[in-house]
């Protein structure tokens, strides 16, 4: 099932440099994810716990919404207001970011408040329709793990699996944040600056060697 009405937030490989570079001292602000009861592998990625401090890297522009490491999002107070106004679904564990400096052509007094949030799982990937490739043919029936990811040609959702959430992820690509068409329209109407968003069917990744 190709999903033309969903969109992906690209993180790695995006030329518009914008990210929150957090300071990790002793690792005490990193929360370990849950493990799968079937295969005993982690079913999610590491998350940050408060207090969270660091620098905002903004090479060209200040965005209202951007993907972050670990399937999370960074968003401005302006975006948060719109999300609350329209009862946007699919995010949890909202934490305020303590921004100490801005790396780029901006001053700290120009900044809005920024927040970090986890995005919930809300669909399953259509492995064949997505061209999803892994190193193993065996599949965990609970978490969907089937080896190291080699690549994906597009993001297509398994029919009937999408919960309808505005923000969501698929377990097979836990680091990729997806958005509903409704949410994209909310961002457009509110003139929110969204970093590196593209239709899900245009999103691809490859971890295979070139030789």
Biggest beta sheet attributes? 6 strands, mixed
Q: Based on CA inertia axes, which overall geometry fits?
A: globular
Q: State which percent range the strand residues make up.
A: 35-45%
- Helices and strands, in N-to-C order? EEEEEEEHEEEHEEEEHEE
SSE-based structural type = mainly beta
**Euclidean distance between termini CA atoms:** 31 Å
Instruction: Estimate the helix proportion, in percent.
Output: 10-25%
| Total DSSP E strands | 16
* Low-pLDDT residue spans: none
Count up the helices: 3
Q: What is the topology, as strand order, of the major beta sheet?
A: 2-5-8-9-7-6
The residue-averaged pLDDT reads 86
Structural domain count: 1
Compute the CA-based radius of gyration: 17 Å
Q: Can you give a write-up of this model?
A:
The chain is mainly β and 211 residues long. The protein has one domain. Helix content is 10%, strand content 35%. The strands form 4 sheets. Strands 2-5-8-9-7-6 form a 6-stranded mixed β-sheet. Strand 13 and strand 14 (173-180) form a beta hairpin. The protein is globular, with a radius of gyration of 17 Å.
In a nutshell, what does this entry contain?
The protein is mainly beta and 211 residues long. The chain has one domain. The protein has 3 helices and 16 strands.
């Amino acid at each position: 099932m190709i999903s033309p009405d969903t969109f992906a937030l690209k993180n790695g490989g995006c030329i518009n440099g914008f990210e929150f570079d957090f300071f990790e001292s002793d690792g005490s602000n990193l929360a370990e994810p849950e493990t799968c009861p079937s295969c005993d592998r982690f079913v999610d990625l590491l998350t940050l716990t408060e207090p969270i401090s660091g620098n905002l890297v903004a090479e060209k522009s200040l965005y209202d919404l951007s993907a972050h490491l670990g399937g999370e999002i960074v968003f401005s107070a302006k975006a948060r207001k719109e999300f609350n106004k329209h009862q946007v679904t699919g995010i949890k564990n909202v934490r305020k970011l303590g921004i100490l400096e801005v790396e780029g052509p901006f001053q700290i007094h120009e900044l809005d408040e920024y927040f970090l949030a986890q995005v919930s799982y809300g669909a399953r990937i259509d492995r064949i329709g997505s061209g999803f490739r892994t190193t193993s043919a065996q599949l965990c029936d609970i978490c969907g793990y089937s080896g190291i990811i080699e690549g994906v040609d597009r993001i297509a959702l398994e029919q009937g699996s999408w919960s309808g959430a505005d923000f969501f992820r698929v377990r097979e690509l836990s680091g990729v944040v997806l958005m509903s068409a409704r949410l994209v329209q909310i961002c457009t109407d509110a003139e929110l600056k969204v970093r590196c968003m593209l239709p899900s069917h245009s999103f691809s990744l490859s971890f295979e060697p070139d030789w």
